[in-house]
């Protein structure tokens, strides 16, 4: 799936940008767990990538909405390690 396929859905665009910049990762054993890597540069890069994806499609999301969605997804991600794996 190309980056342009994500631009119509803000949540999917942000997730794509966070994953492809390696700001977040999915636990290889628990596909429902997203892990925040803790790389500030990757997170900043994800914001810029999401902006470019949206601009390339012509979709007009407000910058504030984009920042809020990135913040929401990063807050929901586990910090540094999968809690399921850590408990074993």
What does this entry look like structurally?
By secondary structure, the chain is mainly alpha-helical. The protein has one domain: Arc Repressor Mutant, subunit A (Orthogonal Bundle). The chain has four helices and three strands, in the order αββααβα. The chain has helices at 10-20, 40-57, 63-76, 83-86; strands spanning 24-26, 34-36, 78-79. Strands 1-2-3 form a three-stranded mixed beta sheet. Helix 1 crosses helix 2 and helix 1 packs across helix 3 (63-76). It is elongated, with a radius of gyration of 13 Å. The N and C termini lie far apart (35 Å). 22% of the residues are buried.
- What are the secondary-structure elements, in order, as H or E? HEEHHEH
Number of domains as seen in the coordinates: 1
Main sheet attributes: strand count, strand direction, barrel closure: 3 strands, mixed
Query: What average pLDDT do the residues reach?
Result: 90
Number of strands: 3
